[in-house]
Amino acid sequence: MTGSHEVTGSIPVSSTKPNPPFRGNVPSAEARMRRPGRIAVVMVLTAALSKTVPAAGDATSGAAVYKAGRCSMCHQLGGVGGKMGGVLDGVGSKRDAEFLRKIIKDPKSVDPKSRMKAYPSLSDKDMDDLVAYLLSLKAAPEKK
Ligand code: HEC
User: Could you tell me the pTM of the whole model?
Assistant: First the structure.
């Protein structure tokens, strides 16, 4: 029994050891709690940015998406195409990426009376490319 007393007696000795590391343990435990939160915030920000940064798309591929989507049935570019949807020349100087995505995916979310065809099933890549293409259509400088 004296042996067990010696063991318990040694506890205060060893419990003085955890004290200095204990200080370090508190911040690291906090850090463990904080890190996932920080990562989540970064992920949300990254996701938000990737949706609004138009440079993600490739305008040359976007021209092919424009063709494949038959946008020209209703829209004119350089005098070619249908008249119902209006001229898209210079639309890149007039509209931003957010607006373009909205009107292409769901025109009625822009105007409930919209007569434009909706393209809800375009892939993310096709949408990025198409938007990059439209944004590249800057207003021509005044002809002299
Ligand atoms: C069925 C005809 C039709 C088709 C097909 C069509 N649009 Fe439209 N679009 C319209 C009409 C009509 C408008 C005018 C606003 C409205 O009614 O929503 C419009 C408006 C737009 C606008 C807004 C122009 C502005 O500055 O206000 C953009 C951009 C646009 N269309 C792009 C496209 C693209 C890109 C495609 C092909 C993926 C396409 N449209 C296919 C009919 C069409």
Answer: 0.70
- Which residues, other chains included, contact 134 with Cβ-Cβ below 8 Å and sequence gap of 6+? 62, 66, 88, 91, 92, 95, 100
Look at ligand 1, atom 42, and give the residue with the nearest C-alpha.
116
Structure tokens at 85: 């949807």
Tens of pLDDT, residues 3-61: 445 555 555 554 455 555 555 555 566 666 666 667 777 777 666 665 555 458 999 99
> Among 74, 46, 56, 34, which Cα is nearest to 123's?
56
Residue ranges around ligand 1 (CB below 6 Å): 66, 69-71, 73-75, 84-86, 88, 91, 94-95, 100, 103-104, 107, 111, 114-117, 119, 130, 134
Shortest-distance Cα residue to atom 29 of ligand 1 = 100
Q: Give CA 22 to chain center in angstroms.
A: 42
